[in-house]
Amino acid sequence: MLSIISERGRNLVPWLGHGNSGVGVVELSRALLSEKGEASNIAIAIELFQTYSNLSSEQRLEYFLMLAIEFCADMDMVEKIARAFLDSPSGKTSALLHAVSESRRQELFRRLNHAPGGTKQLVAMRGDLLNCITENSELKSDLINVDADFVHLFSSWFNRGFLVLERITWATPATILEKIIEYEAVHEIDSWEELRRRIQPSDRRCYAFFHPALSDDPLIFVEVALTREISHSVGEVLAEERDSVDNSKINTAVFYSISNCQKGLRKVSFGNFLIKQVVEELARELPQIRTFVTLSPIPGFIQWMKSHLENSDENGLGLSEEEDILTAIESGEWRDAEEIPDPMKNALLSLAAAYLTRPKNQDDRALDPVAQFHLGNGARLERLNWAADNSTKGLAQSVGMMVNYLYERDEIEKNHQSFENGKIVASSRIAKLSRSSPIPQRTS
């Protein structure tokens, strides 16, 4: 139907040329906002996407800068209506103020979304924008409003009501299984056989959120191990040779990998919904499961140690061996955390507890991004695990340490509220480790 409409629209706009009309993306953007007819709108939107796809990285940056400057709100009109609202506050003047305050970019993106596959192409476009911001940090302040418009619209288009939870199994279409392999961001999947070990056994699960506009492309997925106890290392979870746990003996669900799939949907949160819904799914299927816990990396720990060494006084973190620790990690001297002497191990555990519970960002309540995610979802910091991930990546990030975040179904909302109020909820063992750290306790 959309193809028929777009062809009719193309007949109404004869200068369109399947991405090669010679009309640039700027002119097409202006034309798209000026057209009134639905058919011509769809035809121009298709043309704009085709033209955009042929742009170089530099040309895409120029386009985003143009969107930032030319397609913003009319500030004179905003001021005029704002004064009218202040003079006579009413529902009518409030609605007018809301309407004129919205940038023209948002309407442009809405009209682009009318094109077949428009949502997917807009998500990809925002991915390009994020690349431009990363590679041209000096222009971030110019581009941030364009990004804010994408996030505003995507937050509505991808809200929880539109998301569909599906279990990924060995019978899932191969095109989707290929994307699970591609998108896995925590523990790399290097073969089809490894993927099979993660999703086919009766004590393993994988769930993903899909959106109707990207029905063959997952948004986010989580991998789960069903066990008899809380797992303390990823090696035991991903072991090639292991015996499956009988369903009657399962009492714990371990979330060991969560991967966001679409770069263009960064800052559009649905991970919290995913975990909570999977908890409910598993509780219905296997009511004997009482413990829901993660086995999570600590990605920022080593970088945090380096920062303290560079910025603190001559005592650094209070460890005489800390420079040796970082040198050994960076040189690859340690290939297994079990090689680390006990005094250094104990010091690192206490520092990791301090890193997870004490430091704060101005905007975030936890310094570690994974901690920020799980604690914000209502989990509790439960346990630090030594030598939990001896991969090159695990040693480089956190000397192989991993952490369990515990989701207690009756405490999730309470813990979430505590976190929003600036308190990190942690088990007594984590709190004790943190107190033994040389990092001074913060009072604010």
Can you characterise this structure?
Strands 1-2-3-4-5-7-6 form a seven-stranded mixed beta sheet, sandwiched between helices. The mean pLDDT is 87. It has 20 helices and seven strands. With 444 residues, it is an alpha+beta fold. Helix 1 packs across helix 3, helix 5 packs antiparallel against helix 6 and helix 16 (342-357) crosses helix 20. Helix 13 links the parallel strand 4 and strand 5. The chain has helices at 2-12, 25-34, 38-53, 57-70, 75-87, 91-101, 104-112, 118-135, 140-157, 174-183, 192-199, 234-237, 271-285, 301-311, 322-331, 342-357, 369-376, 392-398, 412-420, 428-435; strands at 164-167, 204-210, 220-227, 252-260, 291-294, 380-385, 402-407.
Quick tags:
single chain; 444 residues; alpha+beta; Butyryl-CoA Dehydrogenase, subunit A, domain 3; Aminopeptidase; 3 domains; seven-stranded mixed sheet; 7 strands; 51% helix
Category from helices, strands and their pairing:
alpha+beta
CATH class of the largest domain: Mainly Alpha
**Count of alpha/pi helices:** 20
Query: Can you tell me the CATH architecture of the largest domain?
Result: Up-down Bundle
Short description:
The protein is α+β, with helices and mostly antiparallel strands. It contains 20 helices and seven strands.
List the helices and strands and how they pair.
Blueprint: H1 2-12, H2 25-34, H3 38-53, H4 57-70, H5 75-87, H6 91-101, H7 104-112, H8 118-135, H9 140-157, E1 164-167, H10 174-183, H11 192-199, E2 204-210, E3 220-227, H12 234-237, E4 252-260, H13 271-285, E5 291-294, H14 301-311, H15 322-331, H16 342-357, H17 369-376, E6 380-385, H18 392-398, E7 402-407, H19 412-420, H20 428-435
Helix pairs in contact: 1-3, 2-3, 4-9, 5-6, 7-9, 8-9, 16-20
